[in-house]
């Protein structure tokens, strides 16, 4: 941000110099014109500062000043700092990389007093992967916030609307340290903060708390449960008998759609594509087969082999960015690319609460690095990559997300209807108007 | 509040009566600190601020009055006394304090000496929403010779069979050899759900349990369970796989029935959210069969097995001696207490501990031993591999090897004690003579007393005070 300041100053400075030069050259320029132009340059400089946003801290890990600032903020909130682990591939050295074997609870006191116990439990479940998937994480977060609100008491001389928001800030930092927040969680937090600040000051504490709890319940009901039903309704129209549908990984929404379609007696079969190291496709496979859907299971390396059989591709999304790019599990962009090559339609299913205002065109700028030790495999008692840290020229990279350009996506099915990928900013604008 | 700590310090120490007939087990000195200090220190280091200590009136009196028993812990200790002769088991004690228990409990035994990372146990309890989470450790062989025992230690103790799943964290099976008639019987339902089970026998149970509050309430209703380790834990482990697991469990039912109406509604709505979370999450704790995470079971028991590190339960003499060797590593106080008067011409080994207000005279040699508080050691004494408790007087020329000398004993001149246990308040006797309580070795006798290691030393002459 200091660079931005310097740039703004330089811009205004050079424009002042230019005006002085022209004034010297043609002395007939009116004084007021010069004054007006100087003012405008200064105003332009300030606007330049205001409009340009700061980069978030979690993508500037290789900048020691930012890291120091983060450490100071965490110290102020009494939350331990989680240290990075292992060698990071240079292209992603600006992101955090944590080890699952070093949980944040190691540095917390055991009956946790600073952080509410349900938030500690949630953070543990995030970092160990017990709660994974965008919808599950948001629901779990809102559930934990309900406990926090229930146990909250307003201290004397404080207002609930301001104090509760301040109480939630260290919890959010803690959860961020356990695992970087997802876009859906970010939107949920924004909603809760808005609801809390909108509580009138005359409201009694009990009333305010019940109001907040009902708000949270309603949010989950509307944005997640009912949205899933609406999306299933739209998506089932797109599934015809005899279809061969390809899905990737385990998306709760896509699984929901397929199960509902099967119950509405559509005849189709499913191909589940899976990838290491998470192997989430196995869970999707189990859930679909449990319902009675006939499935095939391949790894992503066999994608181009299996694609000639496929009639449609259904993908889930972690977030939909403002420029129409789809952020989803790593491997999704490959699926979309190969499907486009084979002229297979790609349909992305995403609820509107996952739409976010970020703009990203590549998977490097903002991503998540998972534990690199997950890539190690033990077969017959031997682990090949056991001492990967000792090999100086070897780096293990375990990416979690990637972005798919809108050219590869044919349709986005949301609870508002079926829209093309480029209409995402329209939805965002309409949502902002509503709020 | 997340967890409440409960320290069980009412045990009698029935397996080491030689040491505990006079001093209650929680106050036995280990490394010159009372035994109860070690679990309290563990809880304090981890961040607890208050502990409920269940103990006997005698211990409570000694803690508050005796200056030698200094528990310098900053936590708030809530001492709950139970009658000594009530013969209460650990579960009975927990039932006794049911009113004080407001949240999940962490039950610790007073004879646990460990440097385990407690967060591992508690993380299992939190992350999987477990009903029980416990700590176990790989047992180490005791290498020191135990005084008063002929030959090697016989495996008189029954083995414990502990079955864990593939990840090594989920507790599937627990039984003691005494309860099994012919062989280990494992139910088919367990094998169907967890086809790969590792059964371990060489594990030491640290008696550290994280229990949900509903378990404490359940204990209040079921008065037949009296021991946590002997009855409650095997019951919970078995109940994980019982057929009624899928419907609201016995434990949950009693818990819900106790609450008022609106609270039931709150818990049921939250249950729905938790169920929704689990449904939407793409995680499963096992793979290979068609069931959901945790096989849909609501009761789960977890165990953390320590590979390295110190973990001892001081309930036998052998464990007591071993603990005295290793306990000094757990705290970093100087080996020689600053208030001890140690003359320059004595040889004190690096792994010996000298307590406060000791007097060590010239030409003594102390190796691998612990000398208690206010002990007097005269000249030309050789102490090797021994534990000397508080207030002992060792006269000149003694040679003490591999022994335990309890508090306030007097070892007469020239005594040669090998692998013996001298009870408290007693004096070393002559070879082959009968026990004569009033007999003391005074200076005019100068007898050479030779006690070999087949004799267990004197009884228990507590009316006999030390006198010069």
UniProtKB/TrEMBL annotation, chain A:
One of its GO terms (cellular component) is eukaryotic translation initiation factor 2B complex. Acts as a component of the translation initiation factor 2B (eIF2B) complex, which catalyzes the exchange of GDP for GTP on eukaryotic initiation factor 2 (eIF2) gamma subunit. Its guanine nucleotide exchange factor activity is repressed when bound to eIF2 complex phosphorylated on the alpha subunit, thereby limiting the amount of methionyl-initiator methionine tRNA available to the ribosome and consequently global translation is repressed. Pfam families: IF-2B (PF01008). Component of the translation initiation factor 2B (eIF2B) complex which is a heterodecamer of two sets of five different subunits: alpha, beta, gamma, delta and epsilon. Subunits alpha, beta and delta comprise a regulatory subcomplex and subunits epsilon and gamma comprise a catalytic subcomplex. Within the complex, the hexameric regulatory complex resides at the center, with the two heterodimeric catalytic subcomplexes bound on opposite sides. PANTHER family: TRANSLATION INITIATION FACTOR EIF-2B, TRANSLATION INITIATION FACTOR EIF-2B SUBUNIT DELTA. It comes from the Eukaryota. The chain crosses the membrane at residues 6-24, 31-52. Keywords: Cytoplasm, Initiation factor, Membrane, Protein biosynthesis, Transmembrane, Transmembrane helix. This is Translation initiation factor eIF2B subunit delta. GO terms for biological process: animal organ development; central nervous system development. Its main location: cytoplasm. Belongs to the eIF-2B alpha/beta/delta subunits family. It is found in: Cytoplasm, Cytosol. GO terms for molecular function: guanyl-nucleotide exchange factor activity; translation initiation factor activity. It comes from Oncorhynchus tshawytscha.
TrEMBL record, chain B:
Belongs to the eIF-2B gamma/epsilon subunits family. Acts as a component of the translation initiation factor 2B (eIF2B) complex, which catalyzes the exchange of GDP for GTP on the eukaryotic initiation factor 2 (eIF2) complex gamma subunit. Its guanine nucleotide exchange factor activity is repressed when bound to eIF2 complex phosphorylated on the alpha subunit, thereby limiting the amount of methionyl-initiator methionine tRNA available to the ribosome and consequently global translation is repressed. Keywords: Cytoplasm, Initiation factor, Protein biosynthesis. The keyword Membrane does not apply. The keyword Cytoplasm applies. Residues 5-140 form the Nucleotidyl transferase domain. InterPro entries: eIF2B_gamma (IPR051960), LbH_EIF2B3/5 (IPR056764), NTP_transferase_dom (IPR005835), Nucleotide-diphossugar_trans (IPR029044). This is Translation initiation factor eIF2B subunit gamma. One of its GO terms (cellular component) is cytosol. Component of the translation initiation factor 2B (eIF2B) complex which is a heterodecamer of two sets of five different subunits: alpha, beta, gamma, delta and epsilon. Subunits alpha, beta and delta comprise a regulatory subcomplex and subunits epsilon and gamma comprise a catalytic subcomplex. Within the complex, the hexameric regulatory complex resides at the center, with the two heterodimeric catalytic subcomplexes bound on opposite sides. GO terms for molecular function: guanyl-nucleotide exchange factor activity; translation initiation factor activity. It comes from Oncorhynchus tshawytscha (Chinook salmon). CDD domains: eIF-2B_gamma_N (cd04198), LbH_eIF2B_gamma_C (cd04652). It is found in: Cytoplasm, Cytosol. It comes from the Eukaryota. GO terms for biological process: cytoplasmic translational initiation. Residues 339-424 form the EIF2B subunit epsilon/gamma LbH domain.
